[in-house]
Amino acid sequence: MTKSEQLFMRAERVIPGGVNSPVRAFGSVGLTPRMIASADGTHLTDEDGREYLDFVGSWGPMILGHNYPAVREAVIRACEKGLSYGAATKREVEMAELICGSVPNLDMVRMVNSGTEAVMSALRAARGYTGRDKIVKFMGCYHGHSDALLVQAGSGVMTAGIPDSAGVPEGCTKDTLSAVYNDAASVQKLFEEFPEEIAAVIVEPVGANMGVVPPEKGFLGRLRSLCTKYKAVLIFDEVITGFRLAFGGAQEYFGVNADLVTFGKIIGAGMPVGAYGGKREIMMCVAPVGPVYQAGTLSGNPVAMAAGLAQLTILKEHPQIYRDLNRAGAWFFGEIRKLADQSGIPVTVNACGSLGCVFFTDADVVNYETAKTSDTARYAEYFRYMLAHGIYLAPAQFEAMFLSAMHSGEELHMTLERMKEYFQLYR
Ligand SMILES: *Cc1c(COP(=O)(O)O)cnc(C)c1O
After folding, report:
1. Are 46 and 8 in contact (CB under 8 A)?
2. Ligand 1: which atom is nearest the Cα of residue 241?
3. Which of 302, 310, 308, 349 lies closest to 330 in space, CA to CA?
């Protein structure tokens, strides 16, 4: 038995499923998790000393690769000055100024501790601002694990409020309406039905939690006009896309303005950080200036801010990182598509910037329904083949592959070789 297996057996006895977040379990690929001991650059090393080329990047934060020296140094220096004060600090001001100065349409920002918290708080602000209760989300979009958002609505566009998780009372989700991704008409119908009741439409500007599903041309713009017309708040959940597609996130990349934006992942450089921000008049509803209560003992934690600020500063000062990363993504995912086309396996490759996903289906994947046509057993087999050859992909079909600025051409070529072998072997 490997050390990872031994540790996992111990873990299962004391942690539900042996993991602290379900996506880390290897259940859907029929394995047990590799216990990671360290990470550097594009590589992970497990407790057995096996190395992997990593395409998960801690689910997005590690856009500069793992253990980036300037980020690590900033954290060490911050630690020397104490881990938490529960009081205002200069670094929080610098962080907020950097974000407000660079993200389009964002006047004020509040730091929190996770993406879940960011989304939950943004929705509360939107509801407080509009005085309305209903929200619209899209099937297949993930916005963290807060009660109101654990809804995909099993059947049909207009189905409202069936919780997806045990432990979520229907009362918590009765104001959550579900729409179809890439189908603005499904949102329009909801607005026509509830013209003065919808507080907010929340969307992942690139769907990245049902595999990767880019927005079709015009989709985000239609959401913008509908929200303007019906005086609802448009929330871009940029927990994945923020500081990844471009420094200004999806608003900059697609040229569509949101009213509120949520961040996580990259903003903390691997530390537990989230944030939400947007228009001044909405953010001024938040306590202590406004009536919408939202708080956090460790929010804006000095060590976490040091990490985030260091990573964001590097990204801001080197805009070519985005050009290179997006170009690498276009090339790499394009090559996978070519390999897939040459193989007999039905594969659809979706990509946007440095995010991509290999779906084992011949359907165009444009929303949750079509994503679900993917053959997850095939994905599991592909995952196992890649892992056995030292390539660490997301251990589930409906997740993104994340490129970092550190992935070299050589590493990407090597990865393509392994994919080619898989496609040929398993034809
Ligand atoms: C990861 C994610 C979240 C939740 O963030 P956590 O930090 O895991 O709470 C919310 N929205 C999107 C789009 C995400 O990808």
Report:
1. no
2. 13
3. 349
To test the pocket of ligand 1, the residue of 209, 238, 243, 266 to mutate (highest count of ligand atoms within 8 Å of its CB) is 209
What is the rounded (10 degree) CA torsion for 223, 371, 149, 138?
20
Full DSSP string of 383-405: HHHHHHTTEE--SSTTS-EE--T
pLDDT in tens, 370-407: 999 999 999 999 999 999 999 999 999 999 999 999 99
**174 included as an active-site residue:** no
Report residue 24 as tokens.
């880390």
Residue 387 has phi, psi (to 5 degrees) of -65, -40
Cα(120) to centroid(ligand 1), Å: 11
Beta bridge partner(s), residue 349: 358
SS3 68: coil
What pLDDT score does 427 carry?
Answer: 65
Can you tell me the mean pLDDT for 296-316?
Answer: 98
Cα–Cα nearest to 144, from 169, 113, 175? 113
Q: Tell me the pLDDT tens digit for each residue of 12-23.
A: 999 999 999 999
| Active-site residue flag, 379 | no
Q: What is the dihedral of CA 72, 76, 79, 80, to 10 degrees?
A: -170
Q: Could you confirm whether 375 is annotated as catalytic?
A: no
- Spatial CA neighbour of 334 closest among 361, 321, 352, 360: 352
Cis peptide bond N-terminal to 288, omega within 30: yes
CA torsion angle 151 155 158 160 (round to 10): -40
Quote the CA–CA distance of 265 and 118 in Å, as a whole number: 11
Place of tokens 């592959």: 401
Q: Give residue 161's pLDDT.
A: 60
Ramachandran area for residue 242 (φ above 0: left; ψ -120 to 50: alpha; else beta)? beta
Task: Name every protein residue with a CB atom under 6 angstroms from any ligand 1 atom.
Answer: 114-116, 119, 142-144, 204, 208-209, 237, 239-240, 264, 274
Average pLDDT over residues 203-211: 96
Average pLDDT over residues 181-209: 98
CA of 259 to the centre of ligand 1 (A): 19
Query: Residue 86 and residue 19: Cα distance in Å, rounded?
Result: 29
Alpha helices in 15-107 (DSSP H): 69-79, 90-102
